[in-house]
From TrEMBL:
<dbReference type="GO" id="GO:0005886">
    <property type="term" value="C:plasma membrane"/>
</dbReference>
<protein>
    <submittedName>
        <fullName>Syntaxin-binding protein 5-like protein</fullName>
    </submittedName>
</protein>
<keyword id="KW-0175">Coiled coil</keyword>
<feature type="domain" description="V-SNARE coiled-coil homology">
    <location>
        <begin position="38"/>
        <end position="102"/>
    </location>
</feature>
<keyword id="KW-0963">Cytoplasm</keyword>
<dbReference type="GO" id="GO:0005737">
    <property type="term" value="C:cytoplasm"/>
</dbReference>
<dbReference type="InterPro" id="IPR042855">
    <property type="entry name" value="V_SNARE_CC"/>
</dbReference>
<dbReference type="GO" id="GO:0045159">
    <property type="term" value="F:myosin II binding"/>
</dbReference>
<dbReference type="GO" id="GO:0005096">
    <property type="term" value="F:GTPase activator activity"/>
</dbReference>
<dbReference type="Pfam" id="PF00957">
    <property type="entry name" value="Synaptobrevin"/>
</dbReference>
<dbReference type="GO" id="GO:0006887">
    <property type="term" value="P:exocytosis"/>
</dbReference>
<dbReference type="GO" id="GO:0019905">
    <property type="term" value="F:syntaxin binding"/>
</dbReference>
<feature type="region of interest" description="Disordered">
    <location>
        <begin position="1"/>
        <end position="34"/>
    </location>
</feature>
<dbReference type="GO" id="GO:0006893">
    <property type="term" value="P:Golgi to plasma membrane transport"/>
</dbReference>
<feature type="compositionally biased region" description="Basic and acidic residues">
    <location>
        <begin position="7"/>
        <end position="34"/>
    </location>
</feature>
């Protein structure tokens, strides 16, 4: 059992050393060129504006569908609450005139 613990400790130590060795080589941040930034984000040209507008429209439609579903669920819950309230009122009327020994 002690051998397993010693082996695990050695594995952790070697993993830790590997991590620190990799970070030591790239410790200084590198400035990116404008081409690299443009390639990463692709925010140039008229086509990107059209794509962004289409994406915004799609998200708007998804949001509208979610809101409609939420509205439907809200109406269902409201109807269920009204049914429950009316049943509770009926039960209260029925139990109003009963005595404790009639329960």
């Amino acid at each position: 059992m002690n051998v397993c613990l010693a082996e695990k400790a050695k594995e952790k130590e070697t993993d830790r050393q590997k991590l620190f060795e990799e970070s030591a080589t790239d410790s200084k941040p590198r400035a990116r060129t404008t081409e690299e930034i443009k390639a990463k984000y692709r925010k140039t040209g008229v086509q990107d504006a059209a794509t962004a507008a289409a994406l915004a429209k799609d998200k708007l439609m998804e949001r509208q569908e979610k809101l409609q579903l939420l509205n439907e669920h809200t109406e269902e819950l409201q109807n269920g609450a009204q049914d429950f309230a009316s049943m509770a009122a009926e039960l209260a009327k029925q139990m109003e005139n009963r005595k404790w020994w009639q329960l």
